[in-house]
Design brief:
Elements: H1 2-8, H2 31-34, E1 40-46, H3 60-63, E2 72-73, E3 78-80, H4 82-88, E4 94-99, E5 104-111, E6 119-123, E7 153-165, E8 169-170, H5 179-189, E9 201-203, H6 204-209, E10 239-244, H7 253-261, H8 269-272, E11 282-288, E12 298-304, E13 323-325, E14 331-333, H9 343-347, E15 354-355, H10 377-383, H11 387-390, E16 405-406, H12 412-423, H13 439-443, E17 449-453, H14 460-465, E18 470-471, H15 475-478, E19 484-487, E20 489-491, H16 496-503
Parallel strand pairs: 1-6, 3-5, 9-20, 10-19
Antiparallel strand pairs: 1-7, 2-8, 4-5, 4-7, 10-17, 11-12, 13-14, 15-16, 18-19
Amino acid sequence: TWRAALEAGLLADATPKPIEAKVNALQLPPLAASRAQANTVTLRFTPDARTYDGRFANNGWLQETPDPVAKLMWDNAAMVSKVDADRWGITTGDMIRLTTPTATLDIAAYVLPGQPVNVIGVSLGYGRTAAGHIGDNLGFNTYFLRNSHSPYVQAGVTVTKLGATYKLVATQNHHLIDSIGQEARDERIGPKHHDGRLIREATFAEFKEHPYAPHEVVPGRVGLQLFQPPTKFTDTHAWGMSVDMNTCIGCMACTVACQAENNIPIVGKEQALNHREMNWIRIDRYFKGDPDDANTIEVIYQPVMCQHCENAPCEQVCPVAATMHDSEGLNVMVYNRCVGTRYCSNNCPYKVRRFNYFDFHSQDPRNTWGVPYLKPPDMQQNEQIDPIKRMVFNPEVTVRMRGVMEKCTYCVQRIHKATIAARTHGPDSDVKDGDIITACQQACPTQAIVFGNLLDKDAKVTNLHKNARAYAMLDDELDTKPRTMYLAKLRNPVDTGEVQENKS
């Protein structure tokens, strides 16, 4: 019997009998009674995406990691639906008072598309007073409103607008030049279930019928460069990356991994308010649907790092050749040449270059900024940077100082480490597919990021670049020839009538 069950994978005649489950209505919160009043809502408590329940509040990397949905830094807030916000006359940053039968809390509001009507979401883990130097007195302590009888949902909450405002740092619209640029970006996103220039997507049924359905908006490549490239940038290797938007869940693990690997400093809330955060990878979050109907909202995540363009706009404007191409297709930064003109950042259509305005590694992100270090930068680490902080630095990556532009390097230190190790086995030896794993690729829980040598015909990244869903962001408009390709998003909606309506 045991051998038969092991071979079949189940035990015969062992199916459990069905049991009818009954719901005890007396134990449910009185939602119907709560929603009868116009200003009474239900409160939903959730662990914070970065600090969890508060145990990681003193980690500066996590505090400066944007929330996956709200894109908030250094704070939490009360997530309010657009319908409720219009009804109460509040906008993002307005202070509101949440009153439960046992407690009261003043907290900043954040208008979030997709938030259910008459439900306010608050995250735990903020407002601590004994977390440490980084985590103390950040955000709002929502534990005051929580009780043991209903630890995750609190009904019968009254909302009152206070008339004050609070500064929240939400990074989604950072690095946009002006309102015209934002309008153009919104046009390039495309409507729900429809592809755009930045976000390309299609339904699964359309993809099965026509594999190139996600690329309907592509008008064709426009070659506008003034000269032909001197080389094809394929000397021994041609490094490239693929990002699958179908598997990316926006968890921000790649952002933190990149920060740890490449010695990226945290800048603090004050500088983040000035759009000066230093993350080399940002996860753009886009909403599609009707903002007034939470049931129609869909979320799309798009990791954006340096695209390593072969026809790079940044290289054409740098007056000192600090940003340049190597023979293997990498858009590299020579930090010693950089004089901080920031022309490259202005000319980058992807807005992925970061400028070190101050001595961020030596500054305290929670205190007032002091006088910039005026001696040679190589002396600053010994004089001003805390020895404990220096122990966190990756010794294989240069620690940048004030006045230097920086960006994603495809983890060039890992590339060189692997190629040097391979060549020690002989002149004909080379790295194999999978020998080089970038920090973002290593940390991605869904394996949405793949890196490798495009000259290797059997490499995974090469096959992904040839995939029917693959596209280079904005390449059809700007002819930048990025080495980073995205795989279009596929949806499998139930309501096909809504899809056809949007298509028309």
